Amino acid sequence: MTCLRCGFKFNCICAMEPQLQSAADFVLLTHARESSKDTNTGILMTRTLPSCRVEMWHRTQPPQALLNQLQDPSYQAWLVFPSDEQHLATPLTLPTPDSTKLLLIIIDATWQEARKMVRKSPWLNQLPRIALIPENTSSYSLRRNQQPGHLCTCEVGIELLKQLHHPQAAQQLQDYFTHFIEIYHADKSGHAK
């Protein structure tokens, strides 16, 4: 029987799920096509980080809850996205304890879709950007045509946790992600690992 939480039939991974904490809030701005894919790794972040939530992206209707949060002076919002000529990426710095809380918005889509989402969302273009320079290459292998140097959503979360000085949480999420990738292949082949 398929597990309703992790989606695996032969190899439930729920017992491996860590419970993590972070100094920042995370929002996965998710493309509609991404939300239904069983290869989506953003779900690993929402399961493990209570400070992580999903907002669905629609071209003509921005998510009102997120727009409201962007107007809240108690948050310092950043778009996690590669820099280009118009937007210089800035290193991630933690706010002081008596100041604002970090709000990290991660585009949860293929890179082709992500670029279109940002281009078609003027409200996203107003945000400062963080471009990650990962220490390692991506180990995400569940989709074809992955562009070199790009990370999947969960790997972005892992890198952000490292930059936020949460090495233990980053390692736990990395272990959970690695386990997910390994189990995915076995489960889709129809056998227990």
TrEMBL record:
UniProt-listed InterPro entries: DTW (IPR005636), DTWD2/TAPT (IPR039262)
Top EC class for this record: transferase
Top-level taxon: Bacteria
Residue span, DTW domain: 1-189
Membrane-spanning parts: none
Listed EC numbers: 2.5.1.25
Keyword annotations: S-adenosyl-L-methionine, Transferase, tRNA processing
The keyword tRNA processing is annotated on this UniProt entry: yes
One biological process term in Gene Ontology: tRNA processing
Keyword Protein biosynthesis attached: no
GO molecular function term, any single one: tRNA-uridine aminocarboxypropyltransferase activity
Pfam annotation, one family: DTW
PANTHER family: TRNA-URIDINE AMINOCARBOXYPROPYLTRANSFERASE, TRNA-URIDINE AMINOCARBOXYPROPYLTRANSFERASE 2
Descriptive protein name: tRNA-uridine aminocarboxypropyltransferase
Organism: Photobacterium aquimaris
